[in-house]
Design a protein that fits this description.
It is a single chain. The chain has about 260 residues and is α/β, with parallel strands linked by helices. It has one domain (about 10-260): TIM Barrel. It contains 9 helices and 8 strands. It has helices at about 25-30, 50-70, 90-95, 120-135, 150-160, 180-185, 200-210, 230-240, 245-260, and strands at about 10-15, 35-40, 75-80, 105-115, 140, 170, 190, 215-220. An 8-stranded parallel β-sheet has the order 1-2-3-4-5-6-7-8. Helix 2 (about 50-70) packs parallel to helix 3, helix 7 (about 200-210) packs across helix 8 and helix 8 runs antiparallel to helix 9 (about 245-260). The longest helix has 21 residues, at about 50-70. It starts with 10 loop residues before the first strand and ends in a 5-residue tail after the last helix.
């Protein structure tokens, strides 16, 4: 017999990839209590300056309107994904980025970070961290699935050197091996409920051990074969595991909203 559905009204997904989500997906999210989302910049199969700027434009026009029409409180994070750093034109994109942050809907820099490593990735990451510092923007950063522990340590070192306030950076894709290191540096730990990263079943005992302080849940739905309803399902599982409604509300929405400077719904 399945567990009863728990009604949630403040579920906010801190990482959605909208271009592969259809309108029916959006209806399902709203039906199961997801009221808000941060749409993040993707990696691009064509990592050129023109393609990146076109992607940013599509997020801030087409996708923003689509999600708002579906009833979501929608915000956007823009940034040069480490797999999309252009071989030429990097500084053209960096120079164009600030113009997107004047609307009030683009509120964070992301998804940025390290993937394969190397001088070009590091240059793009460091430059975007300095841009975030100058514009006083929160950051969504991520390390890759491969060599995650080593790359997370490298990413954390560069974050420390950037002089950004640690609590203004979500380090996404945290797992059991890296989450305490991330929290120990003062950052927000993003637990990504995705088949390639962390299942709901593994997230529940991790959150029970960590608590709600500086921990946020997201799904990365739209990025590969994701779990569209992982966030409301996790909220239900966490409640059934004995955690208080206050703790569950914080990790499934309130902490994300607070990080982005949004009020509760």
């Amino acid at each position: 017999m399945g567990w009863p559905r728990v009604e949630w009204r403040d579920v906010f997904d801190l990482r959605l990839h909208p271009s592969t989500l259809c309108d029916q997906d959006l209806e399902s999210l709203r039906f199961f209590g997801v009221t808000g989302a941060l749409l993040v910049a993707d990696s691009s199969p064509s990592p050129t300056a023109d393609a990146l700027l076109e992607h940013f434009e599509a997020l801030t026009t087409v996708q923003l309107k689509r999600f708002e029409k579906a009833g979501f409180e929608t915000r956007i994070a823009l940034g040069i994904h480490p797999l999309s750093v252009p071989a030429r034109g990097l500084h053209r994109v960096l120079d164009a980025l600030p113009s997107f942050f004047s609307s009030g809907r683009v509120v964070a820099l992301g998804l940025i970070g390290l993937a394969r490593g190397g001088a070009l990735e590091e240059e793009a990451f460091d430059a975007q961290l300095q841009l975030a510092r100058r514009l006083k923007l929160p950051v969504i950063a991520s390390a890759p699935l491969l060599k995650r522990e080593a790359m997370t340590k490298q990413l954390l070192t560069r974050l420390r050197e950037s002089k950004l306030p640690a609590d203004r950076v979500v380090v996404d894709g945290a797992n059991a091996k890296t989450v305490k290191l991330i929290l120990g540096r003062g950052h927000v730990a993003g637990l990504t409920l995705h088949p390639d990263q962390l299942t709901v079943e593994k997230a529940v005992p991790l959150i029970r051990a960590l608590g709600a302080e500086r921990v946020v849940l997201s799904t990365a739905a739209g990025d590969g074969a994701g779990d569209l309803l992982a966030l409301p399902r996790a909220a239900n599982r966490l409640t059934q595991s004995g955690l208080t409604r206050g703790v569950v509300s914080r990790v499934s929405g309130q902490n994300a909203r607070a990080f982005l400077g949004l009020g509760s719904v």
